[in-house]
Amino acid sequence: MKRNDFPILTETMNDEPFIYFDSAATSLTPEPVVNAIRDYYRNVNTNVHRGVYTLAAQATEHYEAVRQQTADFIHADKANEIIFTSGTTAGLNQVARGWGDLNVHAGDEIVVTLMEHHSNLVPWQQLAQRQHAVLKVIGITADGQLDWSAFQAALSHQTKVVAVTAVSNVLGTRNPITKIAAAAHAVNAAVVVDAAQAVAHFPIDVQAWNADFIAFSAHKMFGPTGVGVLYGKTERLQEMAPTQFGGEMIEDVTQQTATFKAAPLGFEAGTPNIAGVYGLGAAIDYLAQIGYEAIQTQEHKLDQALKAALDQPDVTVYGSNNPFAHTGVFSFNLTGIHPHDVATALDQQGVAVRAGHHCAEPLTEALGVHATVRASVGFYNTIDECARFGHAIQATRRFFA
Amino acid sequence: MSLSNLNQLYRQVLLDHARYPRHQGTLPAPDATLTVHNPTCGDTISLNVAYDGDRLKQITFTGDGCTISQASASMLCDQMTDQPLTTVQAKLDQFDQLVTGTGTATDLLGDAAVFNEIHQFPTRIKCALLAWKALEQLITQKEAQQ
């Protein structure tokens, strides 16, 4: 059973068996990924793209092999379309500044959705302010889906960017990226996808999505923190300028000027997170070994079990009524009990959840609340854990009644 | 059972302050007001104060947030109403030490002494301190103006 790959799952927390329901914040890291990072430091530990000696060449070779592996993983055309970043946030900021500053001008429009995490909202706010562009935020329907008619109405030939999350980190809603990209491309807008919450749950196919840029983090797909991926179509990467300058990314440097390498190395200034890239490669292997089909089969059951666990008096679940529209993410509130108090009570019963606005303040406000409790699962969670979570909620309600 | 631990945090007097907060509301003519947030959870407290020389004459709060932050604000106002500023400062110091687990003196704190176990719940210390830190800021502002 794959649960053994995650030693934390066998721990106790506050004298109760530990139930980890915060995978939307960060997924747990399986032993093979931990081992890959350890192997790098123990057996390789050299810099990439620099040394002439054998061990350095070995690090470079592996680093570039993971780039190819990542390209294959998301069905990108070429490995050169894969830029290693420090995470989703870094990738989205790179696009907003490096591409946005050159391609979005005064009066142009940027379209985002109310479902965005702050990291796919604030960089676009900042871009709009720098360039005197207009930021349009598309709302959601009562059941937490993108307001499609409002989205269509917002698009025009003024639209230069559509930035959208593949999966809401609060509601679990999946956005129809292929359809969104087609509509955006019809007005010649570039499509930027935040895939952070998607990649642990279903395969990403950049060909099917036809997005221009896609960002995600390794630590939400069973890899390590501090490393992520920015995919860009070759022609879009050619329109993007580097935003960080230094080692590895330059071609020629004189006292006063410098020229830069093309993608991807031109966007990877400084020594990258090499151990992280080893870990990312191991995480992709791990995902392949488990298989998205098995992941989805298990998550299907978990979604149903979570929905059932939350089906009790005084519990409000946000977003869709359909458990399968949640992608393992359920935000909820207990009437009259603040989410922070709920989270503390659940913690005392061994259940780790998140409480707050989940880095999506505008969405939380639109739900009419200041904060919510969020339970989010990964394939390593069990039906039994969902049932115990339901009982823990019952006990919490009784405690505060 | 683990929920019994919760009784150490959410004692009756605290739940009572959260349910029936004292000194909630605004002041007709406050000398100063301050709104503070806990950005990680969105809790908000607004304090309104009126001074009479070196006395904190009146203090009220409005806000939204968890049981701990709201009860703590209620207790703060209870404790600080019509107190000399030297006493206010002494109470602020004592409370800070109590909730961070660096001191145990509670002789000045009244109901607020109930927070003596909160250092066992480190993620909630910020909630308890929110209103008290706001008052500290207001006192510092007043001193700076003098």
UniProtKB/TrEMBL annotation, chain A:
SUPFAM superfamilies found in the cross-reference section: PLP-dependent transferases
Cofactors named for this entry: pyridoxal 5'-phosphate
Chemical reaction(s) catalysed: (sulfur carrier)-H + L-cysteine = (sulfur carrier)-SH + L-alanine
GO MF annotation terms: cysteine desulfurase activity; pyridoxal phosphate binding
Class of enzymatic activity (EC top level): transferase
Keyword terms: Pyridoxal phosphate, Transferase
InterPro entries: Aminotrans_V_dom (IPR000192), Cys_dSase_SufS (IPR010970), Cysteine_dSase (IPR016454), PyrdxlP-dep_Trfase (IPR015424), PyrdxlP-dep_Trfase_major (IPR015421), PyrdxlP-dep_Trfase_small (IPR015422)
Any Gene Ontology biological process: cysteine metabolic process
Pfam family, one: Aminotran_5
Domain Aminotransferase class V: from-to ranges: 19-388
Protein EC: 2.8.1.7
Family: Belongs to the class-V pyridoxal-phosphate-dependent aminotransferase family. Csd subfamily.
Protein name listed in UniProt: cysteine desulfurase
Organism: Lactobacillus selangorensis
From TrEMBL, chain B:
Positions of the NIF system FeS cluster assembly NifU N-terminal domain: 10-127
InterPro entries cross-referenced by the UniProt entry: NIF_FeS_clus_asmbl_NifU_N
Domain of life according to the entry: Bacteria
MF terms in GO: iron ion binding; iron-sulfur cluster binding
GO biological process, one term: iron-sulfur cluster assembly
Family: Belongs to the NifU family.
Name of the protein described by the UniProt record: NifU family SUF system FeS assembly protein
Native species: Lactobacillus selangorensis
